[in-house]
Specification:
CATH architecture of the largest domain: Up-down Bundle
Structural class: mainly alpha
Number of helices: 19
Number of strands: 4
Helix content: 55-70%
Shape: elongated
Strand content: under 5%
Number of domains: 3
Length: 458
C-alpha cells in the first residue's frame, strides 16, 4: 500500500520501488515508529480530533503489531516502501477504518524525523553507558598500578618515567570528554519534531507540547522547516563516534606495540587473541587490529553524511534517506568496538618488570639528572649539555646512567655527588612530580578521587 497512491495512475516500476524503498534499514526503528504513533493518537484524542474509542482501538492495534513483530509472528515484508507504511497497512488490516485516521495531522517527513530522533536518543544513552563502563575498567587499572613504573614516550622514543596509572589516566580523560560530547548532543537534539507536517505544520489544533512530553522531549521544535530537514544531531553524533573510535584506535595501537616480542609490556588473554594458520608460535592481537581498522569505517559515515547534506535546499529532500544506513552502521560499529575493547582491557596482563626495565634502559631519567645539576647551581642550558655528554658516554660504554661510577660522573662535571644515584632512581623521578596532572603518587591520588566522584555522581 502506497500512502501517496491517489495522485498516480500507474504502478511504480519495480526497480524504482526497490531503489526508493527504505524498509530494509528503517525497520530497525519499528518500536520508535509505534511509540510515536501512540503518542500522536493520544494527543489527537485529547484535542478532540479523534474519539476516545478510536484512540483506544488504534493503540490496541499498534501494541498488537509491536508484540507480534517482537515475537516473530509478524514478519516485516519487502512489498512495503518503509516501516511507516508497513505499520499503517497492518493497522488498517487489523482495526479497519479507525486505522485510516492514524496519519491525521502528520506527514511522513515529521514522522521519520521523530523516529530517527527517538532511535538516536536511545543509541546515545546506550553508548554513554558503555563508555562509563569502560571508564570504570580504566579506573580499576589505575588504582592497581599506582606504583607500576613504565616509560612515557614522545615520537615513539622513550622520554621520561611515568606510571601505568598515569598512562591509563590519559585515556580516562579522552573517554570522559567523549561522554561529555554525547551528553551535549542529547541536550541539543531532545526536541520533538512531530507536528511539523511536511514542512509547514498543519491546520489541525495539535498540542505539540503535550506530544513532546509524552515522548520525554524537552519540548517541541520551533521551526517546522528545520524540524523535517535537520540532520545536525546525526552529523554531531557521527563526529563524536569518530572521535571515540580515534581514541580507541590510538589505545589499540599501543596495545599492539606493547604486545610485540620487542616490548612485552602486556599479555593479551587467549580469549581475545587468534593464532596463525601456518606459524604455530603466533598470538595475534586481532581485536585491537580490527578496532583500529573499523575506525575508518566510522569516519566514512561522517564524511558521507556531510557530503549528502552539503547541497540540500530547504526543506525535506529524498537524499536525506541516505542518513540511516551510514549512521546505523556507525552506531553498531562504535558500540561493538567499545564493548569488545573493554573485554580485552579487563583481561590484559601487565608485565610490570618489563615495563620498569624498559624505563630504566632508555635514559628516561636524563631530565632528572639535569634537574639535579640545576638544583646545585648549574644553569639549565649548561646542565642540558652536560647530561648530553653523559648519555653519549653511556651509549659508548653500553651502560645506563645508574651504572656509571661517581668518578665517571665527576670526570664530566665535578658538581656530581653520591646523591645523584637517588636523584635519578625511577621512584624518585616519578615521586617528585606531584603538581596537578603529573604522575607522582600524591597527584595521582587526588586525580583518582576526582574520577571516583565523577563516576559515582552519574
Amino acid at each position: 500500500m502506497k500512502l501517496w497512491g491517489g495522485r498516480f495512475t500507474k504502478e511504480t516500476n519495480q526497480l524504482v520501488h526497490n531503489f526508493n524503498a527504505s524498509l530494509s534499514f528503517d525497520q530497525k526503528f519499528f518500536q520508535e515508529d509505534i511509540d510515536g504513533s501512540i503518542a500522536h493518537v493520544t494527543m489527537l484524542a485529547k484535542q478532540g480530533i479523534l474519539t476516545e474509542e478510536e484512540k483506544d482501538t488504534i493503540i490496541q492495534g499498534l501494541q498488537g503489531i509491536c508484540q507480534d513483530i517482537k515475537s516473530g509472528r509478524l514478519e516485516i515484508t519487502e512489498e512495503h516502501e518503509d516501516i511507516h507504511s508497513f505499520v499503517e497497512a497492518n493497522l488498517i488490516e487489523r482495526v479497519g477504518d479507525a486505522g485510516k485516521k492514524l496519519h491525521t495531522g502528520r506527514s511522513r517527513n515529521d514522522q521519520v524525523a521523530l523516529d530517527m530522533k527517538l532511535y538516536t536518543r536511545k543509541e546515545v544513552q546506550e553508548m554513554d553507558k558503555l563508555l562509563k563502563e569502560l571508564l570504570e575498567s580504566l579506573l580499576r587499572i589505575m588504582k592497581e598500578h599506582m606504583d607500576t613504573i613504565m616509560p612515557g614516550f614522545t615520537h615513539l622514543q622513550k622520554a621520561q618515567p611515568i606510571t601505568l596509572a598515569h598512562h591509563m589516566g590519559a585515556y580516562f580523560e579522552m573517554f570522559r570528554r567523549d561522554r561529555s560530547r554525547l551528553q551535549d548532543i542529547y541536550q541539543r537534539m531532545n526536541y520533538c519534531p512531530l507536528g511539523s507536517g511536511a514542512l509547514a505544520g498543519t491546520t489541525y489544533p495539535l498540542d505539540r507540547d503535550y506530544t513532546a512530553s509524552l515522548l520525554d522531549f524537552f519540548g517541541p521544535t520551533l521551526n517546522s522547516m528545520d524540524s523535517v530537514s535537520d540532520r545536525d544531531y546525526l552529523i554531531e553524533l557521527s563526529s563524536a563516534m569518530s572521535i571515540i573510535m580515534m581514541h580507541l584506535s590510538r589505545f589499540c595501537e599501543e596495545i599492539i606495540v606493547w604486545n610485540t616480542n620487542e616490548y612485552q609490556f602486556i599479555e593479551i588473554d587467549d580469549s581475545y587473541s587468534t593464532g596463525s594458520s601456518i606459524m604455530p608460535q603466533k598470538k595475534n592481537p586481532d581485536i585491537a587490529e580490527l578496532v583500529r581498522g573499523k575506525t575508518g569505517r566510522v569516519y566514512g559515515s561522517l564524511i558521507s553524511l556531510l557530503t549528502t547534506m552539503k547541497g540540500l535546499s530547504l526543506a525535506y529532500n529524498k537524499d536525506m534517506q541516505e542518513d540511516k544506513e551510514f549512521v546505523f552502521d556507525a552506531m553498531d560499529t562504535t558500540k561493538g568496538c567499545i564493548l569488545l575493547f573493554r573485554g580485552m582491557l579487563d583481561t590484559l596482563t601487565f608485565k610490570k618488570e618489563n615495563m620498569r626495565a624498559s624505563a630504566e634502559g632508555g635514559f628516561t631519567n636524563a631530565t632528572d639528572a639535569a634537574d639535579y645539576l640545576v638544583n646545585h647551581g648549574v644553569p639549565f642550558r649548561d646542565a642540558h649539555g652536560i647530561i648530553g655528554q653523559l648519555v653519549l658516554y653511556c651509549i659508548d660504554k653500553n651502560i645506563s646512567l645508574k651504572e656509571m661510577s661517581l668518578e665517571e660522573y665527576k670526570a664530566i662535571s665535578p658538581v656530581f655527588e653520591e646523591e645523584i644515584y637517588d636523584a635519578i632512581s625511577m621512584e624518585t623521578c616519578v615521586a617528585k612530580r606531584n603538581i596537578v596532572g603529573a604522575p607522582g603518587p600524591e597527584a595521582m591520588k587526588k586525580v583518582i578521587q576526582i574520577y571516583e566522584k565523577y563516576l559515582s555522581e552519574e
